Amino acid sequence: MKIKATFPKLPLRNLSGEVLRLSVDGAAFVAGDLTKVVRFINAPQRFDVVVACEVLYYIEDVPKALNQMSDLGRHCLVTYYSSHREKLDHELAGILIAGRETIRCDDHSWSVVWWHNY
User: Fold this and answer.
1) Do 37 and 46 contact (CB within 8 A), yes or no?
2) Residue 69's closest CA among 5, 7, 115?
């Protein structure tokens, strides 16, 4: 499977605090609140990908947020820290998962889960 990743102009900083620029013509980046989803002005009907990294812990209604992600994107990806794995794995059980990986660093680990909505 080939994956094409595109990124818009994002202000990124290196370790010394210098602003770095990454740009790809035609890419759009929209940040929003999954608990208050509205259609964005000038946004596509569905996004190529919707990502929620390290935020599901703070959302009261996780199933609703996951449904919103699926409604908004053709592909979805979430990450979460291992201490939240049991609860969030349970919340994700109703979704047809396309893939799952674990990222490990020293004594820490994170789950990465993604699915498709065709």
Assistant:
1) no
2) 115
Contact 95, 66 (CB under 8 A): yes
Domain boundaries, the chain: 10-116
Query: Token match 């396309």: residue?
Result: 98
Output the pTM of the full model.
0.74
- Mean pLDDT is highest, among 4-13, 26-35, 103-112, for 103-112
Closest CA to 84 of 58, 106, 63, 65: 58
**pLDDT tier, 7 (very low <50, low <70, confident <90, very high otherwise):** very low
Class of the domain covering 10-116: alpha beta
- Chain mean position to CA 67: 13
Residue 59: which of 89, 77, 85, 34 has the closest Cα? 34
With 80 as the cut, is the pLDDT of residue 34 above it? no
- SS3 label, residue 12: strand
Q: What is the DSSP string of 32-69?
A: --GGG--PPTT--SSEEEEEEES-GGG-S-HHHHHHHH
